[in-house]
Amino acid sequence: MRSGRSQPVVRRLVRAVGVGAALAATSGCTVPVDAVAGISVSGDGHLLGVMMVCGHRIDGASLYVRSADPDETVASWTADQALKPGLTTWTLDSPAAGWVATGPSVPLTAGADYTLYGWTKDNSWSSAGVSFTLADRDRLTPGNVRYVDLSVDGQASAVTVPVAEFEAKACRRS
User: Fold this and answer.
1) pTM of the shown model
2) Of 28, 32, 89, 146, which has the maximum CB count within 10 A?
């Protein structure tokens, strides 16, 4: 004869497994990365967003302060046409042809750590982001891109390379 206590234990176990399965199913959901964001500067000193789309599309980009709440966006841009595979650049500190600013644009401040990343409206794709400070921006020269590269052992580090090297190597990460 079985004890009446086993059914509540079994029910709790079944509920716990169900909750665990639900959490596992939702917590692993991330937007796949299929582009790489970078920054550069123009010949006249304007900060540039640089996006290398690897195989699908990117609809826009956002810039936020990394040490703050990620929802606190400094600026956001939506491309008039989805970015297709290849390299795209646009100015971040002034209106750019083919882009619409969709959020507040505030001046960048010294000491803040910024991140630029790309996204799609339906969350189907995203880009690897690039973090930078104003000091990082000030070290850039026209024709060079700062982005986060992955080493052979999977370690991520910010590097600055010529645009042609960025274009040739950025998509090898995925």
Assistant:
1) 0.79
2) 146
